[in-house]
Design a protein that fits this description.
This is Nuclear protein. It is a single chain. With about 200 residues, this protein is of the alpha+beta class. The chain has a single domain, classed as Beta-clip-like (Beta Complex), CATH 2.170.270.10. It contains two helices and ten strands. The strands form three sheets. Strands 1-2-10-7 form a four-stranded mixed beta sheet, with no helix packed on it. A three-stranded antiparallel beta sheet has the order 3-9-8, with no helix packed on it. A three-stranded antiparallel beta sheet has the order 4-6-5, with no helix packed on it. Strand 8 and strand 9 form a beta hairpin. The longest helix has 14 residues. The protein is globular and about 40 Å long. It binds zinc ion (2 copies).
Amino acid sequence: MFLIKDDFWQVKRTKEKGLGIFAKKGIEAGTIIGDYLGKVIETARYDFNNDKDGLYLMYYTDEASIYPNLKKPGIHLLNHSCAPNCWIYTYQYHTLFFALRNIKPTEELTISYLLSPKGKSCNPCKHICKCNSKFCTGTMHLSKDKYKKWQKFQDNQNNKKAAKPQVIFNKNLPKLTSYPKIIPTNPTIISLFFPHG
Ligand SMILES: [Zn+2]
Ligand SMILES: [Zn+2]
């Protein structure tokens, strides 16, 4: 679900990455782009073999994931970039996407998929990155080192104050009654992912 107004974004077809979300107006750093909503499913029962790319499944709790409604446009359409202009913030167990910096009109909104380092199951790996940024590693997988640092960072800030939700499988995750106004960029994110500026 988008939390920016409809006239701030549009769906457009990209050259190499399928559909993407593009800014129609300038979006200020810290603005919440949306909440990753969808059906609550049991991660252990999810059939990854039937999922062509497996990139829509979002972590919810240790046993549950969120699967978005692919028939509707939503923030699940943000493409991966090695130098994304949006980032994720976990708030009351919901995954919010927010603008990491000021985004200009016509820019594509991008996020890092933060995939774990390439394992044996990822063979052949389909997670090739075509973001064309100067930080492009050619893959959506993080290096072992970056992944470790990211997990540590997440563990330290995640859900600290939130009560664990009551998980109801096969129901849609309802939106929150309220959202933070702005999400400040954490310098750790910048130093972890953009060490060269
Ligand atoms: Zn892969
Ligand atoms: Zn890339």
